[in-house]
Each structure stands twice: as C-alpha cells, then as structure tokens.
Amino acid sequence: MRVLKVLFAIALVAAVVVGVIYWLRTHPRETPAPFVAERRLRIYALDVGQGDSFLIVSPEGKSVLIDAGPPQAGGKVAAALQARKIKSLDLLVATHPHADHIGGMKSVIETVAVKNFLDSGQIFASDEYERLMRAIKEKRIKFIEAKKGMTFDLDSGVRIEVLNPPGNGQWITKVRPGGSVENANSVVLRLTYGGFSMLFTGDAEFETEALMMKSGVPLRAQVLKVGHHGSRHATSGKFLEAVKPEAAIISCGEDNRYGHPAQLTLDRLRKAGVNVYRTDLSGEIEIISDGKKFEIHAARNPSLAALWQGRIELIELP
C-alpha cells in the first residue's frame, strides 16, 4: 500500500512538471529587454563647484572631457577619471578660456594621456590659459580649433558635432553690456547616439543662441546642458522651443555669488516643462542611454521646491 502511494505521488509530480513545461512552451513569457543592458553611453556632470566639467564615456570605452572646472577642482576631476579607470582621453574640450572651465585641465593632463585638444581658438591673455597652452605643447597633444560643422565619431555610432563658433575667423563681437565675448564664442557641441542627443553649450548666452537658431544648425536634444550655469542672460524661451529638451543639467556651485541659477531662467525651464537637475543641490549627475531611452541619476535628491528656487546675486560693496 505504501509503495502504491509513493508511485502515485511520483506520477502526480511528473504530470505537473510535464503540464508546466507544456504551458510554458505554448504560452511564451514576454520579458522586456533590460534597459541599456549593453552598449550604453554614459555622461557625467561632475560636481566641480562653480564651473563646468562633463565626462562622456562611449559604449566601447572612448572618453571625452568637456571642461575641467576651476583650478581647485583639478584634483577632483582627475580622481573622477581614475575612479572610472580612464587612462587616456580621446578628446579634451575647452569650451572657452575662462578659469572656471579650464582651471582644472593642467591636473588632468598631468594625470592621464590626452590625444586631442579642442579649443575655441580665441586669443585670451591670462596666466591660467597660457599655462594650459604650454602644457598642451609640452605634451605634444594635437591642437584642434573648433569650427561649425566639424564632427568627431567615437564608436557605436556616438557622434559629436560642433555648432559654434562659426570658424574661419568669424566671431561674435557684439554682446550685451557687461557680457563676455569669450562666453559668446563658446564651443557648443551636440552629441548623438541613435535616437538620443544632448546639447553642451558652455557659457553661451542669448547672442550665441540667436546665431545658432538663425544658422539652422541641429539643436533638438533630449538633454540640455544649460548655458552659463543658469545665468538669466542664457536659455531664452525661443531657444528652449528650438531644443525641446526633456531634461536640463545646470552646473553651478552652492556658494556662488553670481546668482546662478537665476530665477528667471528656472521659470523659463519650468514653463517649457523641462525636468531640472543641478550639481549645486544634487552633486554628481549621471545620464545613461542605450541609444533609444535615457535615464538620469543624481548623487542626491533635493526637494522640488529647492530645485526651482533660484539663487540671489551677491553684490560686493566697495
């Protein structure tokens, strides 16, 4: 009797297993493909305080660094490269020669090998810029002067196109009172990977935005690096209509005295329905894309109220 019970139990289990296998074969389960399982593009907005530094790592490991923050951030940027096991940069970009964008580059050049250096080509008299140019020459890094239409192909279809300056000796010379010709002639880059795109604007303001819109260069991008740290003189409503970003990254310092980001700029971004991320509140920000979709992850998650609150410009009395 006991043997019969055991045989019946075995037969029952076997029948269940056969039934499950048959059901699975006739009802295949649809499993969604994991997001960016492989061949992912990574972009990091490094937290360098009041300055800019963006690291791009292609699916196959090629790397581009756009700006390197102020001098005091040089060690931090170099450490960020080392932490990601980056031993060489395929391209180092100085959007313009101001210290809050190029100050950390000497530390970077001394830490990792640099194959190519892309510069706006503006003549600028400062000790910081002259030291950088000497280092570029001493390291025998290939110097490239940016020109509209120039392209850099990385791998896996990752492409970077120069949208500004125009090149061939053409410069924006008329800027607002108190504005900067160096900012206006910032190197502006558009990165594409499949259906994903991101716009890097350096410190470009209204004048540069207007010129690019007039020239008809491709501006549409899912992610926008907001110009000039969120200055009220950048990121116009018309420019946002042309770019149509879903998300915007603002790189600025929490203790800056310039009022970055300005409330007016934040209000324009909010009106356009753009999701905003700020390094002063969120720290380092990572953007990941598989060429179709993208995700954004921040080191910290501030409240929405804080994200939409602009900073107040501090006026120094004589």
List keywords for this structure.
318 residues, alpha/beta, Metallo-beta-lactamase, Chain A, 8-stranded mixed sheet, 17 strands, globular
What does this protein look like?
About 5% of the residues have low confidence. The protein is globular. Helix 2 runs parallel beside helix 4. A hairpin with a 2-residue loop joins strand 11 and strand 12. It has 318 residues and is an alpha/beta fold. The chain contains 11 helices and 17 strands. The chain starts with a helix and ends in an 11-residue tail after the last helix. It has a single domain, classed as Ribonuclease Z/Hydroxyacylglutathione hydrolase-like (Metallo-beta-lactamase, Chain A), CATH 3.60.15. The longest helix has 25 residues. Strands 8-7-5-3-2-1-16-17 form an 8-stranded mixed sheet, with no helix packed on it.
Number of domains: 1
Spans of 5+ residues with little confidence (pLDDT < 50)? 20-34
H and E order: HEEEHEEHHEEHEEEHEEHEHEHEHEEH
Gross morphology is: globular
Within the largest sheet, what's the order of strands? 8-7-5-3-2-1-16-17
Strand content: 15-25%
| CATH class designation | Alpha Beta
Rg, rounded, reads 25 Å
Estimate the mean pLDDT confidence.
90
By CATH, the superfamily comes out as Ribonuclease Z/Hydroxyacylglutathione hydrolase-like
What fold name stands as the CATH topology? Answer: Metallo-beta-lactamase, Chain A
The CATH architecture can be named as 4-Layer Sandwich
Largest sheet descriptor: 8 strands, mixed
User: What is the β-strand count?
Assistant: 17
- SSE-based structural type: alpha/beta
Count of separate DSSP helical elements: 11
